[in-house]
Design a protein that fits this description.
heterodimer; A: 112 residues; mainly beta; six-stranded mixed beta sheet; four-stranded antiparallel beta sheet; 0% helix; globular; B: mainly beta; seven-stranded mixed beta sheet
Amino acid sequence: AQSVTQPDIHITVSEGASLELRCNYSYGATPYLFWYVQSPGQGLQLLLKYFSGDTLVQGIKGFEAEFKRSQSSFNLRKPSVHWSDAAEYFCALNSGNTPLVFGKGTRLSVIA
Amino acid sequence: GAVVSQHPSRVICKSGTSVKIECRSLDFQATTMFWYRQFPKQSLMLMATSNEGSKATYEQGVEKDKFLINHASLTLSTLTVTSAHPEDSSFYICSVLLSQTYEQYFGPGTRLTVT
């Protein structure tokens, strides 16, 4: 069965510090992997995606993620966090034209 | 990416009434849309897959007679919550599937409160 695990429910980082949000998946083959961000009361915005090829993918807002097949992981990173990055982050997967399977999300707080 | 709108953004209704939520793809013709539900501080749960011109596919445990989905055109899908009850209060979000890129773009969501 397909599943996505985000081990960290809540992370707090200082503004300007680096960030890594963890995501592990369970899937029979190589899935299509996504990271979305959600601000309170809003819909989801696509940050980046991995389908194939280069395992390090660049997204919007300075985010990147690295696909590691051996670890079944797709962690999201940002070298320097801004206060406006505070939000809920969801890792998700599918097999193409299928519904997304979401992780439970990681809430990011940014402190001065 | 695609621009997706939802209307209304917030709605309060009385128990027993029906509420219709619209999901529009503003700049893309979408054969497939998805409807999700999100409880406070939780992840998104897929309710149904909406296919243009055909019946929606519902997830296990989602009552198709309670949550009516109509995808009559390539730019509009509607979700009608019939005979709403307080436990139906939730955040409902739709997404549009771009079949060429496999990306999904989400609407801003609709907050439903049933009193």
